[in-house]
Amino acid sequence: MAHFDTEYQRLEASYSDSPPGEENLLVHVPEGSKSPWHHIENLDLFFQRVYNLHQKNGFTCMLLGEIFELVQLVFVVAFTVFLANCVDYDILFANKFVNHTDSSKVTLPDAFLPVDVCSARIHDNVFVIFILIISGVFWLHRLVKFIYNICCYWEIRSFYINALKMTMADIPYFTWQEVQARIIEIQKEHQICIHKKELTELDIYHRILRFKNYMVAMVNKSLLPVRFCLPLLGNTVFYTRGLKYNFELIFFWGPGSLFENEWSLKPEYKRGGNRLELADRLSSRILWIGIANLLLCPVILIWQILYAFFSYTEVIKREPGSLGARCWSLYGRFYLRHFNELDHELMSRLSKGYKASSKYMNCFMSPLLTVVAKNVAFFAGSILAVLIALTIYDEDVLAVEHVLSSITLLGVCITICRSFIPDKHMVYCPEQLLKVILAHIHYMPDHWQGNAHRYETRDEFAQLFQYKAVFILEELLSPVITPFILIFCLRRKSLEIIDFFRNFTVDVVGVGDTCSFAQMDVRQHGHPAWMSAGKTEASIYQQAEDGKTELSLMHFAITNPHWQPPRESTHFISLLKEKVHREAAAVQQGVIAENPAFTSTHSQSDSEPRSLIANLLMGPPSLASLHLGREGSINPVSIGVSEGASALHSISPVSTSLHLRGSYPSARLPRPDHPAVVAGRAMTGSGTDARTISSGSSAWEGQLTSMILSEYASTEMSIHALYMHEMHKQQSRGEVSRHTWHRQESDESSESVNEDIEAARNFPRSSTFPTTSHQEGPAQQSSSQRRYGGASDPVSGSFRAQRTPRMPMGGWSEENQMGRHHDPVPEEGSEDELPPQIHKVQHASVNMKQW
Asked: Residue 158 to residues 40, 125, 165, 178: CA-CA distances in angstroms?
């Protein structure tokens, strides 16, 4: 491998996540007063299990699911061996006759071979014996793991009941934020973590998502080899569950991994002196794991084929068009994932954007393919109609060989053809659809905006939102392709991986080693083009791509309103919220020209959605909103929670249970002291956690209130995401577009840096969060904190950004250019990443209620 050096240096933690004076705190509790959950040694696994039990709706549901997984494995192997060795297919296909003394009718058991014959055929087949041995060992491993997990989850069940005061029957009615709030509360009593008196929301997220945050960051910095340039296929993405499993095995928990336990990076990887030796060691380890994958390839491939066959055959028969449906790719989930975003939060966002994404992809129906599909469907339908008519006339027609098969295949063919025929009554607007998609997924490359109608944009979006058939095919090919990616692509990045973990790992008190990007610190990882100008010290190498630091910070703050960010982050949030509120006030006054907030939200709908957006932008006062008519007139009207929920329903697929049982009749407004109204004000104003206010007169009302307020928080985040993209577009005008889809080794201009800084200085302050002046910046820094990529003027406190040449992988500077290996692949996006520079939306009317 190439031996080259990088310019990275280790980043110290920019702030402590502990209250002042508690940095080295060790809480002592007398033996007699210790609770069963005092000083849990492995808090990472503990919090992960608490989260998993909540997401699986309790101990019983989780136990039943685990048991069925074990049974499913036995069934797949046993049923496959039985079909291959114990069935006489000549009798089954009527190629051989069976003599019956009592009946001439052939039954299904007649096609089964005798037990002794079946057993002999199995014993004589070496390959079948080998498969059974491998499967047996794997099943025993799963069984031992199952028993161990049941013991651990029984303890978690006891924790829920005795510490959190939640029964298993009530878990489905509690949101995760409510569970998390109780965990934070009982820390004072039980001292789950003895290194801190108080836990924060970020502590819990860091422990649950420690390794996932690293993966999101590596994808964001284009470190993982998942993008390839192939002949004929062009730029493609290949990222499967098997490849992801191998990445995690190598980096985090496998033998010889970089971490010595769940919360600590091995000491040798924190020092830069032996980086070349560590890179060689990692390269050798990747090679051996790649060879092991190659040797196990036949077994894994057979399992993948069998599992896919048993899983999808019935679905395809029942719904042939399901293969033409789309799903978010694994790469897309990493690319679109925020730092510190839990699985259910991510899937909630992506599910809300699913319908708009499907409509956008359907805009690109090929006219030629449509013509062919219509005619093929006509011919197939004609033949099918004749066969059905003959069958109705005389059912003996079905006894004719292949008639039933022909009817089935013709039906499948017609269904597939219909999926290629667009709805003639549907009107498509790609730019508007792409804007709606952005409101939910929050990330999008700059060059997509204004080019939504181009097939290049569609092809790149298809890497995030792929056909289900493509997903299945990639998973089937994964056992064959994964070894070669490990051996020939990942090994050459060994030194960059070593440098990444050394430079972007920080030790947080009470948490351990975490990815520095997961701190969401705009000072260390902010991007000047994403409203962080003047507030970030990060060089181009330390900046997170695509505004991920800023967007992740806003998402986490909105999702966890009780969280107290560090001073710099609080300042950033307050400036952004104040800017959005001021722009909303301008909307109310009719000043809408060149207004980013109005431009961003104008595309969402024509009536209630726009009212809701205006209401959320306006913030604390109440749930009253503005009703903007089709002509654009602004008429103040008062709406209740019911109408707000209806508006949210038109933006995203809110559960239809919101409209059941007349919980919030639209005929009357809720009282001012109604819990939902009070909670809504608190959410948008004082920052009270909307999802913890679910104490209605019944579990149903409490859950309903949480759902409504959760939708308000989701919409608030959509507004901020759209607004930040608009501001990014304005700040990026005249600057070379930086995005991760097609990164090049080129110098980057810094002509617009001063303009960005000046724009940031003029941001108004907010009374919602405590703020500090720019001049206080140097005084806030830790003495051990270094400045990268810029210098601060000690008098004015202004920041001078320094731009350095653009290096491959978005930040890896290689001194030994002669020994460098070039990747054949334009780097990436993943379970996450791309950059945004957005053109204004064309104001075409789109009724959001259609999706």
From this structure: 14, 49, 10, 18
Whether residue 681 has pLDDT greater than 50? no
Global pTM reads: 0.73
Query: Distance (Å, rounded) from C-alpha 751 to C-alpha 39?
Result: 53
User: At 265, is the secondary structure helix, strand, or coil?
Assistant: strand
Measured CA distances, 356 to 328, 335, 491 (Å): 13, 18, 39
Q: Is residue 364 very low, low, confident or very high in pLDDT (cuts 50, 70, 90)? A: confident
CA-to-CA dists, residue 177 to 52, 363, 692, 714, 760, angstroms = 14, 38, 6, 14, 33
Q: Can you spell out the DSSP letters for 691-742?
A: GG----SSHHHHHHHHHHHHHHHHHHHHHHHHHHHHHHHHHHTTS----SSS
Question: Phi/psi of residue 512, each to 5°?
Answer: 105, -160
What is the per-residue pLDDT across 474-503, written as a single tens digit (0 to 9) for each?
999 999 999 999 999 999 999 999 999 999
Give the integer Cα–Cα distance in Å for 31 and 821: 59
Nearest to 195 by CA among 43, 339, 338: 43
| Residue found by looking up tokens 């957005």 in the block | 838
> Which position has the token pair 């320094």?
802
User: CB within 8 A of 704, min separation 6: which ones?
Assistant: 657, 658, 663, 664, 696
Nearest CA to 446 out of 743, 221, 225 is that of 743
Q: How high is the pLDDT of residue 762?
A: 40
Q: pLDDT at residue 840 above 80? A: no
Scan for tokens 């206010």, then name that residue: 693
CA gap 768, 761 in Å, rounded: 19
C-alpha pair distances (Å), 850 with each of 279, 439, 440: 54, 16, 16
d(Cα 714, Cα 559) in Å, to the nearest integer? 8
Rounded CA separation 555/557 (Å): 6
Query: What three-state secondary structure class fits 60?
Result: helix
Query: Does the structure show a pLDDT above 60 at 777?
Result: no
- N-to-C CA span, the chain: 51
Q: Which residues of 744-757 are buried (b: 16+ CB within 10 A; e: fewer)?
A: eeeeeebebbeebb
